[in-house]
Amino acid sequence: MDSFFKLIAAGPAFFISAWLLMLFAGIVGSDVGIEPFGYVTAMVVTIGLWLVLAPAIGAVAGGPGRGKAKGGC
After folding, report:
1. Helix or strand run (H / E) with residue 32
2. Residue-wise pLDDT tens for the chain (73 aa)?
3. Rounded Cα–Cα distance for residues 67 and 57 (Å)
4. Is-contact 42 21, C-beta < 8 A?
5. The model's pTM
6. Contact 14, 50 (CB under 8 A)
7. Is the separation of the CB atoms in 18 and 43 below 8 Å?
8. CA-CA distance, 63 to 68, in Å (whole number)?
9. How buried is 6 (Cβ within 10 angstroms: 0-12 exposed, 13-18 middle, 19+ buried)?
10. Is residue 38 within 8 Å of residue 22, measured between CB atoms?
């Protein structure tokens, strides 16, 4: 049941992540050499980042039932 609530929490986190990406791209755009972009582009970039990073985070974090068996042998 805990996984269900984590999945529900990921929805708002996605939109907040895209909004923060849009803000920071506008703030550091001239220093980095990129043009500020809108919210829709920020959502597309956020989806790409999540698709790339989610498997890596899942592999590092592991979860119940993954990795070595707990206990003896």
Report:
1. helix 2-32
2. 777 777 788 888 889 999 999 999 999 988 999 998 999 999 999 999 989 988 888 888 876 655 555 555 5
3. 14
4. yes
5. 0.67
6. yes
7. yes
8. 11
9. exposed
10. yes
